[in-house]
Design brief:
- The chain is mainly alpha-helical.
- It has six helices and no strands.
- Helix 4 runs parallel beside helix 5.
- It is globular.
Length: 153
């Protein structure tokens, strides 16, 4: 929806990934639908100026037969996360609980999933600075997914 944001993210040092064009669940979808969702998004990312690797994250984390097959066949890397506090109703919508959950569960190599840009996510936005400060106090560095994958090889 906001292709003009991508050059700003690139300039700030962020890595750009593919999360599909329509954010549909890709379960029980045809190979042509999956291809269209991934390839059209990748074309827009490239057109916006991203020249690095484009990793993929399935919407809603759902992936069955056709999506894994497509990703394998086209040598796409599917990225997942291991810390995601927003899906827990006892944590979500409470800044202090989001911070505490992330700080308690983050380990070396963790990928943290947050959705701060959506309206109604004020608690998540408020949690970002304390999360960063808390993880830095614990000695964590923040790196891109590409850098993390290179460290794991």
């Amino acid at each position: 929806e906001n292709p003009d944001v991508i050059p700003k993210l690139i300039a700030a040092g962020h890595e750009i990934g593919n999360h599909t064009f329509h954010h549909d669940r890709l379960v029980l979808k045809s190979p042509s639908h999956i291809r269209s969702e991934i390839e059209s998004t990748e074309a827009l990312i490239r057109a916006a100026g991203w020249g690095g690797p484009i990793y993929f994250r399935a919407p809603h984390y759902k992936k069955l037969v056709a999506l894994p097959w497509y990703l394998m066949r086209h040598r796409r890397t599917h990225i997942t996360w291991d810390v995601e506090p927003e899906s827990n109703p006892k944590i979500d919508h409470h800044t202090d609980r989001i911070v505490a959950d992330v700080l308690s569960r983050t380990r070396p190599g963790s990928i943290i999933l947050l959705h701060p840009w959506y309206s109604g996510r004020e608690q998540t936005r408020a949690a970002i600075a304390p999360i960063i400060a808390g993880l830095r106090r614990r000695g964590f560095d923040f790196i891109t997914v590409d850098e993390l994958l290179r460290l794991r090889r």
